[in-house]
Design goal:
Distance between the termini: 50 Å
Number of domains: 1
Largest sheet: none
Number of helices: 10
Strand content: under 5%
Structural class: mainly alpha
Number of strands: 0
């Protein structure tokens, strides 16, 4: 009963806040996304600690804030800034480990770098996607959220009802081929319907619409599998418990870890 109340509370508070962030845009959207990045990184580091590694949490948080600022456009040429941050991260972590002289320095450095890349570097692309929406009068970021949610919902519903053959039972035992294909179809339909209703934006073509749906439907689910892979290795059901009844931050945003950066890269390469 308490878990059900927690789920309802999150829905009642979370949905209006989420819509409000999309509507207001940056810097509010950037601040909220950066907070999500920080919480997600903390969950990743906690999973690493279960495995006996000790990533540099404070340093990771500092770099995450700078990544959020870079994606927000605070610095000119933010792509170069992110590359510079990556170089400084590696150098600084080696220096810190040399000074601290802790056990398992290789694991500590590697997991800190992986966490910074896996969470804020990938998820932070949402910030710049939202800026591109503002520039081109489009709704790609909002539709990405809607499509991964519909994909997850459709995969759960049709997979539960009709799914028998599992995709990767050792990683995610409940996910079936029927559910996965259903989720993919709903992702494509989300962007296609938005395109037909002129909600996607005047800049984008039908090909762009199909690419967005494909990335969301395929790589959104792969992001889910990727996070499940980490949880199975650590031996935990959820990445955290900050969202009562919904698990952790990574559990809710795992579908965006791969889909958001790939759409971001696609737009940088083909729509600039």
């Amino acid at each position: 009963m308490k878990e059900l109340k927690g789920r309802k509370l999150i829905l009642i508070l979370g949905v209006p806040l989420g819509i409000g962030c999309f509507y207001v845009g940056n810097p509010i959207f950037a601040i909220v996304t950066t907070l999500i990045m920080l919480l997600g990184l903390d969950e990743f580091f906690k999973m690493c600690e279960i495995k006996g590694s000790y990533p540099n949490r404070i340093f990771g948080f500092i770099i995450t804030v700078f990544i959020g600022l870079a994606y927000s456009g605070v610095y000119a040429h933010h792509q170069i800034t992110v590359l510079g941050l990556a170089c400084m991260t590696v150098i600084s972590l080696f220096i810190i480990e040399i000074i601290n002289n802790k056990k398992e320095p290789l694991q500590n450095i590697a997991n800190t770098i992986l966490g910074i890349i896996f969470v804020p570097t990938l998820l932070g692309t949402l910030i710049h996607l939202r800026q591109l929406d503002h520039i081109f009068d489009s709704n790609v970021t909002l539709l990405l959220f809607v499509s991964v949610w519909l994909c997850d919902t459709a995969a759960f519903f049709f997979g539960t009802k009709f799914g028998k053959k599992k995709i990767l039972p050792k990683i995610s035992p409940k996910k079936s081929w029927v559910g996965s294909i259903s989720g993919f179809i709903f992702s494509i339909l989300t962007f296609f319907i938005a395109y037909k209703l002129d909600f996607l934006g005047p800049t984008y073509s039908l090909i762009d619409c199909i690419v967005f749906g494909f990335i969301s439907g395929v790589f959104g689910q792969l992001g889910d599998f990727g996070e499940s892979l980490l949880k199975r290795d650590v031996g935990v059901k959820d990445s955290g418990d900050i969202l009562r009844g919904h698990g952790g931050i990574l559990d809710r945003f795992d579908s965006l870890l791969f889909s958001s950066p790939l759409i971001y890269i696609y737009l940088l390469v083909f729509n600039q």
